[in-house]
């Protein structure tokens, strides 16, 4: 397999007009919140369930990093020698003036929620540890240990708790793995 072919938003717009498909490889909750108009959502984990062989497909994600790190798997899913990737992903598409579908009624993607809560708890533990009692530093250490555990095992207890929150009840979040 050769290196992926990186495409600008302008090139992708032209190729879409020629009948290419654009597939967003992010999780379903990220896709529901915001995506390129006309794109399809097939996460990397679901690629094997779809027959994309010999189809004209361009892959995208939020910033382009996930598509680049998965380029070989993406190319293999289409049977192509190289994957076609939107450089800079959704962010670059928006900067170029490309049309997007945005649904702010959808909750933030679960991983962003985990990052916000974990960051807030760590800052809280440090501030309280400094100004109130040094025992609060343990809160920051506990959250850090939880993040390490999630990174090592793929199981995120905080994500499990956040999925139970009312704003996430009907959002379609599934699984408890922590992946960016």
From TrEMBL:
Residue ranges of every copy of the Rhodanese domain listed in the record: 16-102
Residues spanning the membrane: 114-132, 138-162
Keyword line: Membrane, Transmembrane, Transmembrane helix
Protein name in the entry: Rhodanese family protein
């Amino acid at each position: 397999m050769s290196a992926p072919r990186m495409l600008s938003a302008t090139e992708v717009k032209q190729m879409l007009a020629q009948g290419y498909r654009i597939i967003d490889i992010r999780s379903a909750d990220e896709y529901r919140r915001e995506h390129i108009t006309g794109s399809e959502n097939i996460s990397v984990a679901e690629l094997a369930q779809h027959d994309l062989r010999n189809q004209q497909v361009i892959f995208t994600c939020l910033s382009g990093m996930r598509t680049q790190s998965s380029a070989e798997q993406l190319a293999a899913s289409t049977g192509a020698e190289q994957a076609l990737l939107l450089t800079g992903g959704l962010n670059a598409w928006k900067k170029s003036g490309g049309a997007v579908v945005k649904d702010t009624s959808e909750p933030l993607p679960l991983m962003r929620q985990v990052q916000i809560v974990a960051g807030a708890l760590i800052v809280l533990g440090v501030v309280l540890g400094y100004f109130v009692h040094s025992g609060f530093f343990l809160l920051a250490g506990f959250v850090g240990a939880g993040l390490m555990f999630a990174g090592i095992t793929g199981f995120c207890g905080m994500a499990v708790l956040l999925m139970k929150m009312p704003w996430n009840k009907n959002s379609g979040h599934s699984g408890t793995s922590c992946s960016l």
